[in-house]
Amino acid sequence: MSSLSVRRRHLLIAAALAPCLAHAQGRTPPKEGKDFTLVRPPQPTEGANKIEVLEFFQYTCPHCATYDHVLAAWRKTLPADVEYRRNPIAWNDQTLPHVKIYFTLEALKKTEELHAKVFKAVQVDRRPLLKTDEIADFMAANGIDRKQWLDTFNSFAVGTRASRAGQVWKAFKVDGTPAMAIDGKFMTAPHMVGSREGSLPVMDYLIQRARAERGGKK
After folding, report:
1. In CATH, 36-195 is 3.40.50.1400
2. Rounded to an integer, what distance in angstroms lies between the CA atom of residue 10 and that of residue 22?
3. What is the per-residue pLDDT across 153-192, written as a single tens digit (0 to 9) for each?
4. By the 8 A CB rule, do 65 and 123 touch?
5. CA separation (Å) from 70 to 65, 73, 75, 77, 93?
6. Residue ranges of E strands in 51-162
7. Could you tell me which of 136, 138, 131 has the C-alpha nearest to residue 147?
8. How much is the pTM?
9. Domain extents for the chain?
10. How far is 139 from 130, CA to CA, in rounded Å?
11. Which end of the chain is least crowded, N or C, by CB within 10 Å?
């Protein structure tokens, strides 16, 4: 199928979705270029069989910390065909340890328990969490075996994921956080929509649009 035909198909799907979604949400349908943008070129997703919601964040970003609380309840409402992932960002090498912190928490299955606590440590308690020993001490104080933490934090697997995370946000052309990507095709963010809570129905719309474009049903 030609790129023109694909674009026309996407526009037809969006037009078909807009009235029903606007009625269901009681608001004006999200507008391309204002509430969301198209990812060009579209990026691959990790779960081919599921619609991917990808959160871009930084532990040093106060807006990300606040948004995390808003997203927590919304994540619980996501249907079974949606997979939620996070992609931490380091704008420079200095904060790369924060990226490794997130992927180490994932590897140890401690994300739900400690993700918010890392936000608090960095932003409220003013703990930089940039030095390896400081990070290990913090994690040990929160119940993780220090050696297990260090072994995982310094592992090839975590280093590879941290490197890949940098490639991902650059491919999506992310220039600020928080930001959200839907199915590798759409980008939105609270600052685009005008509020954190207002971004949620936009993401609901984009999830339904992605589902329609895949030809699937909820």
Report:
1. no
2. 18
3. 999 999 999 999 999 999 999 999 999 999 999 999 999 9
4. yes
5. 9, 6, 9, 12, 29
6. 51-57, 82-88
7. 136
8. 0.87
9. 36-195
10. 13
11. N
